[in-house]
Amino acid sequence: MGKETILVVDDERLLRWSLKQKLMSWGYRVIEAEDGATTLSRIVIDTPDLITLDIRLPDTSGIALLSELKSKNPNIPIIMITAYGTIDDAVRCLKTGAYDFIEKPINFDKLQNLVKNALETSRLRSAMHSNVQYVKTRFGFENIIGNSSLMTNAVDLVRKVTLSEATTVLIQGETGTGKDLIARAMHYESRRDAEPFLTINCAAIPETLIETELFGHEKGAFTDARILKKGIFELADRGSVFLDEISEMQLNMQSKLLRVLEDQTFRRVGGTKDLSVDVRIVAASNRNLEEWVAAGKFRADLYYRLAVITIHLPTLRERAGDIPPLITHFIKHYNAKFKKNIHGVTRSAEKLLTEYPWPGNVRELKNVIERAMILQDQEYIDAEHLPIRIAEPQLSPLFLARPSGADASLGGAKTGLSLFDIEKQLIEQALNTAGGNKTKAAKLLGISRDTLRYRVKKYGLNSLQSK
Ligand SMILES: Nc1ncnc2c1ncn2[C@@H]1O[C@H](COP(=O)(O)OP(=O)(O)OP(=O)(O)O)[C@@H](O)[C@H]1O
Ligand SMILES: [Mg+2]
């Protein structure tokens, strides 16, 4: 680290000189200014890390200059030098944003401490700031890839909601469509970015623990509650809480959650006091919550409260045009991670990747690219580096379920094919391709040999294998 620069502003030459000598002897670099005008031009050319500012200057008052400096660059700490006994001035300085003040005649030990502390505080603050910047580039909007209209519409809505004061958001979408990604971006792109983003997965936490996780408990609330524990809502005050897999929350917890959503208050378990917080609650579900309401598994009132702002994330097969840019994005990601230099995918691999129906959505695509990049070292990922379900789709049950035209998802029904027929055909095909070798055929289908044997029997295909 280079020397830190301190700007000394004082109209008395002698005082400037003695301050400069001291500061230099403590290891700082010193620049000087004798009045307000020089100060303002100096900080443009040579931004100091700290300023000592005399409260009385020839062309302006120190306080006026202080407030001007603060408005130009609020991050530079300023120590005011005041005349002895002018406490009113000193207080006004602090209110205007000075770090601290020191009286004339200057006690240099005290000054040395002040300078050290002020610089340390501002270093910490800027480290924290760059931390937030760093998180932002990892979790910001620019990492959400997709030019399809379905995706850009969704992201437009996300951006609007992020900047709004909305405190409840519901994200719906199949597994792997980016619900986590969006929830994080919404937090780190909002004014809440410096506050916590806390996540709870409602499916992963036992019913008995979820209440204390969310709301905390008082000391002595139950046998094991030896100390007070703050819950997620309290810890995330002014930040965001991400409630993942909300559909799995038990009905009685759902009603407690509704209360938080309605008036942003709750009680710790065993508590008698209402606590109020300012949190944005983002809930996510890969199930259709409306259906869960109809089935009596989800409270209708909670659903309607959550659904005021709903973001629907499209599946990857609905937006196949986004597949090539996603591939590029993930190749770049894994090139950096694995220190490789893969240029892209071949035309035939791209065709296979765009035609595959992606039941696991973007996560599945990401995993496929990762696997291909681990397995090979050529410049381009080719069909042979892809899993068999993608490389040889005609062997996959997903192939026939795939919507390849406007209403092709009904293709099977239209041609009068039942699932039974489809499965039978697939097994026949696989056995033929494998030349009757059941182990090989099972591998092609991605099922176990036992399963295959069972199906062969079920469909009466036994004659085939002897061929
Ligand atoms: N539009 C996108 N652009 C770039 N990466 C994406 C996109 N959507 C998803 N991903 C990536 O795909 C992976 C899965 O996404 P994410 O975890 O957000 O899915 P999810 O909807 O939360 O899934 P689940 O319902 O299974 O929890 C993550 O690594 C994420 O970064
Ligand atoms: Mg998720």
What does it look like?
There is one protein chain. With 467 residues, the protein is an alpha/beta fold. It has 4 domains: 128 residues, Rossmann fold, CATH 3.40.50.2300; 172 residues, P-loop containing nucleotide triphosphate hydrolases (Rossmann fold, 3-Layer(aba) Sandwich); 75 residues, Helicase, Ruva Protein, domain 3 (Orthogonal Bundle), CATH 1.10.8; 66 residues, Homeodomain-like (Arc Repressor Mutant, subunit A). The chain is 49% helix and 13% strand. It is built from 22 helices and 16 strands. The protein has a 5-stranded parallel β-sheet, with helices on both faces. Strand 11 and strand 12 form a beta hairpin. Helix 13 packs across helix 15. It is elongated and about 105 Å long. It starts with a strand and ends with a helix. About 4% of the residues have low confidence. The structure holds adenosine-5'-triphosphate and magnesium ion. The site of adenosine-5'-triphosphate has 17 residues, from helix 7 and helix 15.
